[in-house]
Sequence to fold (351 residues):
Amino acid sequence: MTEIGSEGALRLPRARVVPLSAPPSSYTAAVERYLTGAGIAKSSARIYRISLTTWGWMLAGESAPTGPARRGAKPPVFPVAAIDDPALPEVLAELAAARADEMDADTVNRELSIARKAIGWWQRQGWIVGDPTIGIERRPAPPDRTKALTENQIAALWRLDVPLREKTFWKMLYESAARADEVLCLNVDDLYSQDKRGKITAKGGATEWIHWQSGTAQLLPRLIARRPRGPLFLTDRKAPAGTPTLGVCPETGRARLSYRRAEEIFEENTRLLANPLASPGDIEDLDGFTLHRLRHSALTHDAEDGTSTPMLLARSRHASVRSLERYARPGVDAVARHVSERDPAARRRNR
Fold:
């Protein structure tokens, strides 16, 4: 039926999309249907699932757990149709604002973008009508000019007393400039050790090569220990029941190392490097480095050494120069050398 609006204008009732399939039984099931039905790349599905799990708490009207409480926390069970609750947008805006005050802007914006993509897909399936995130704005994210580690910090990282798995993983990330989730998806039979290269499933689902150097090449044989197949980087314990076969080493029964656990280990081991002036008693409350900073550092150091833009694009596997700009900015060491080399007083001393 046609309605008359408040200003006398004709207003047509909003058409409801006819469901393309039966709505899933729960929000969690809707997330899995989205990840498979929307063609989300395997390398991206983990990040999407984590973000949508976080949003699951807020869409249920609860605060998302943070810190150690987040690990292993299961989101509340509720039907996806509950997203259409007319009271939800106001509650969601408050929860999102509170979370944004505790998290960095890049993380908040990424999670919001992922949630909106999923909600849009569910709308197109006819499972829900509205979008409760309308009105939630992206947070301004000033550029961080310190993401690339200095050469001294990289050298200090190699001196840390850590297990072989971490040494190999960190070396491979830095030498290949690959994304951490791409490297964690590597299997032993994806490696071409003689050529110092490996075949990965890249962002977007494409199959591509990553290349490493002698540091990684020397560590890999010890890590693999004659295993002919299975995930390259493994957990310390046997895989729990129900773990997908592709995520379990058939030789040892151990599971593939997860991104979350790998990030936790790196962050814990680099707290002192990231906060060299902190007292030992304060270290537990401070943050270490993120795994992404190894990729960022590798590309920045390449750019400082004069690597050409086409080669940087090939190494980073970015689609455009614009995406590469933030990595190719010279770091603090390179700027310091530049200024020092042009210091008139220093030139006179060196004559």
